[in-house]
TrEMBL record:
The lineage of its organism: Bacteria, Bacillati, Bacillota, Clostridia, Lachnospirales. This is Uncharacterized protein.
Amino acid sequence: MYRPTLYSKHDQTMNDFAELFNRFPDYRYIEMRPNPVKTYDNDGVFLDHLHKRKIGYDWEYRDRYFANCIFQYPTLGQFERKIRKPSIQISLQCDSTETGIAAAWHSDWKLEEQQHLDLRTDYEEKEKGTTRYTNKFKIYSYEKIGDFKRMIAAALEFQIYSSEIF
């Protein structure tokens, strides 16, 4: 993350979401487990204790363009440096009001063209980065956490790690 001012908000929103996910009574054998320490790799994993499988995830807190489960653009972006990591299969982007997440599979981003952009940081200079954008993402409301947990359970059971599982 190139915006250190958001580190604590990132961790707090991820931990709150994991608690909500794990508290949901269905699919108790699926656990969202954030990494206890920052690894600069994935942010954690979804563990399937029944089938002995896992999905690595990246978590982002979006302070702009995404609030109240409404994302302002038709495509969702991700940094190439994250898409390339074999330890991350899905990215989750939390909205600024902590009412929804946008979920997208890295396999779908890999089908899209790379774009080279100047990206926002906490500093005056921009980060020159490579990103990809996809329209194959889905927004899940915190109020309907069961829909998201069902999707993760199905992805793990059937080993489908793309938008096909939405």
